Amino acid sequence: MSDQRKKSVKAFKRAQKVIPGGVNSPARAFSAVEMDPIFIEKGEGAYLYDIDGNQYLDYVNSWGPMILGYNPPQVIKKLKKQLKKGTSFGAPTEIETEIAELIVDFYQAVDKVRMVNSGTEATMSAIRLARGYTGRDKIIKLEGCYHGHGDSLLVDAGSGVATLGIKGSPGVTENTAKETIVVPYNDQQAVEKVFKEYGFEIAGIILEPITGNMGVIAPEPGYLEFLREITRKNGALLIFDEVMTGFRLARGGAQELYEIEPDLSTFGKIIGGGMPVGAYAGREEIMDYVAPAGPVYQAGTLSGNPMAMQAGLATLKELKNKKVYSKLEKKAEKLEKGFKKNIEELEFPAYFNRVGSMFTLFFTEQEVKNYQDVKNCDLDLFAAYFKEMIEQGIYLPPSQFEANFISAALSEADLEKTITANYQALKKLKAEL
Ligand SMILES: Cc1ncc(COP(=O)(O)O)c(C=O)c1O
């Protein structure tokens, strides 16, 4: 199909002249799979269409937000209505309160919500709040978790940072990086050691409770409970970054699934229904430290933007119906069964991880429990697999260090097509191993 992507190749050349690396976010570049990125014309339901007219079944979902698929009518209707009223006012609207009420309703640990414009802003602000509230400077971050590109959180990060093999980033000062202590995911002893050494200097721990940005990895039994306990004991805040998992794995995110109440939560992606958005939220006494209620300053010209709020609210209203999640689970189960059968039948060296509608096929035979395990995967084999899938019209995240997303728009036939494509791709690769 590659010669059928001539327009994308040309578009990328043009973009590279005026946009660094030709993309506005590194994860969009196909560098890890040694291809040019595919330029998109439109999305429809479970499908993406590129500018050459090729159709792809999509498992990227715009990196998570499009849980209902592309252009769900309920969302489009609200956006059209808002468009006529105005796209930004820089003044309060009732819809901001309505979406905050819904989030408070879905999340037991949340009394108040502050809207921002991206997941990055949400985690940056949550960290500032944790520091301001506790009067402490140090943050514990888990290796391979990605929380956006805020300075404090770019140390040993996952997603695009891991894909490019970068440890930190030039431009982040040593002093800033020094305040971030990185420990491996799923390692209780490492966290205990840090608390022993720094104790009351720790403002909080931030983590993806189920990771997506080094591929999908679930917490081991007792791990989140342990983090809850040790933070409480040491007066540090537990921050769940649910930018990816929030409203995706359950209405109440990973914290509902694991029945853990963090002190602060960060959101993004789904709560904007495909529009730029982020939010941080938590208990009243902590959130009331945020300006103008409290001293921790954080602001935004476009925060709570009415278009983003309409798209988010319409999406969250659809997710009020818990059946959406049981249907997603059925689809995900079917895909998991199909992939695992393929792996078994072909005796292929691969390992499948899934939680709800997020999954990753790791190119290793070992169990994948942390960042190091992902780094040990066969990245060349992943790249070859990615290309085989693209050739069969299946659009996957172009990196081993990412989660795949299942949307409500995928049909039984779509899933069967994907399982068959997976079989064909693995069979071809197996013959070359
Ligand atoms: C868990 C998590 N936190 C934060 C972010 C940053 O969000 P944004 O890209 O909207 O800045 C992401 C983005 O992928 C994410 O997955």
Automatic annotation (TrEMBL):
GO MF terms, alphabetically ordered: glutamate-1-semialdehyde 2,1-aminomutase activity; pyridoxal phosphate binding; transaminase activity
InterPro entries: 4pyrrol_synth_GluAld_NH2Trfase, Aminotrans_3, Aminotrans_3_PPA_site, PyrdxlP-dep_Trfase, PyrdxlP-dep_Trfase_major, PyrdxlP-dep_Trfase_small
Reaction catalysed by this enzyme: (S)-4-amino-5-oxopentanoate = 5-aminolevulinate
Stored Pfam families: Aminotran_3
Organism lineage: Bacteria, Bacillati, Bacillota, Clostridia, Halanaerobiales
Protein name: Glutamate-1-semialdehyde 2,1-aminomutase
Record's subcellular location: Cytoplasm
EC number(s) given by UniProt: 5.4.3.8
Pathway given in the UniProt record: Porphyrin-containing compound metabolism; protoporphyrin-IX biosynthesis; 5-aminolevulinate from L-glutamyl-tRNA(Glu): step 2/2
Taxonomy, superkingdom: Bacteria
Gene Ontology biological process: protoporphyrinogen IX biosynthetic process
Keywords of this entry: Cytoplasm, Isomerase, Porphyrin biosynthesis, Pyridoxal phosphate
Single GO cellular component term: cytoplasm
Assembly description: Homodimer.
SUPFAM superfamilies (UniProt xref): PLP-dependent transferases (SSF53383)
PANTHER family (alphabetical): GLUTAMATE-1-SEMIALDEHYDE 2,1-AMINOMUTASE (PTHR43713), GLUTAMATE-1-SEMIALDEHYDE 2,1-AMINOMUTASE 1, CHLOROPLASTIC-RELATED (PTHR43713:SF3)
Protein family membership: Belongs to the class-III pyridoxal-phosphate-dependent aminotransferase family. HemL subfamily.
Main location: cytoplasm
N6-(pyridoxal phosphate)lysine PTM sites in chain numbering: K269
Gene that specifies this protein: hemL
Organism: Halanaerobium saccharolyticum
Necessary cofactors: pyridoxal 5'-phosphate
